[in-house]
Design a protein that fits this description.
This is MerR family transcriptional regulator. It comes from Actinoallomurus spadix. Keywords: Coiled coil, DNA-binding. InterPro entries: DNA-bd_dom_put_sf (IPR009061), MerR-type_HTH_dom (IPR000551), MerR_fam (IPR047057). The chain has about 120 residues and is mostly helical. The protein has two domains: about 55 residues, Multidrug-efflux Transporter Regulator, Chain: A, Domain 2 (Orthogonal Bundle), CATH 1.10.1660; about 50 residues. The protein contains six helices and two strands. It has a two-stranded antiparallel sheet with strand order 1-2. The longest helix is centred in the C-terminal third of the chain and has 47 residues.
Length: about 120
């Protein structure tokens, strides 16, 4: 199938498919006129790639996990699970850092509100 059909069937843009190829996540064959052609299996592959992106994984991480799909084995599965666990830990730390930042901002907002309220109070005198 051609790139437009794959894009439509997988629910992604043609631009995304070209990006996936640039990143080594997707492969195509080329016709003599240079048009990309994909197999039926690529629909499922693109859907899998989309799920990985939706989970917050980078294209580099997805490339590390894809061997589990391409050539399933216990070794590849273990490597993919380990890599996804590392990404989860990274995301958890990022969430914790964002929470700390939000808490600091809440403190600043409270100080600013208190200051604003003090401007409303009549001066003692």
């Amino acid at each position: 199938m051609r790139i437009g059909e794959l894009a439509a069937r997988a629910g992604v843009s043609v631009r995304s498919l070209r990006y996936y190829e640039e990143q080594g996540l997707l492969r195509s064959t080329r016709s003599t006129s240079g048009q990309r052609h994909y197999t039926e299996e690529e629909v499922e592959r693109v859907t899998f790639i989309q799920r990985m992106y939706a989970a917050g994984l980078s294209s580099r991480t997805i490339a590390e996990v894809l061997p589990c799909v391409e050539t399933p084995s216990e070794e590849h599965s273990d490597a993919a699970l380990e890599r996804m666990a590392q990404e989860r830990d990274r995301l958890s730390e990022h969430i914790a850092e964002l929470t700390r930042t939000r808490d600091k901002l809440d403190e600043l907002v409270a100080v600013a509100r208190a200051y604003r309220e003090s401007l409303r109070l009549p001066a003692a005198g």
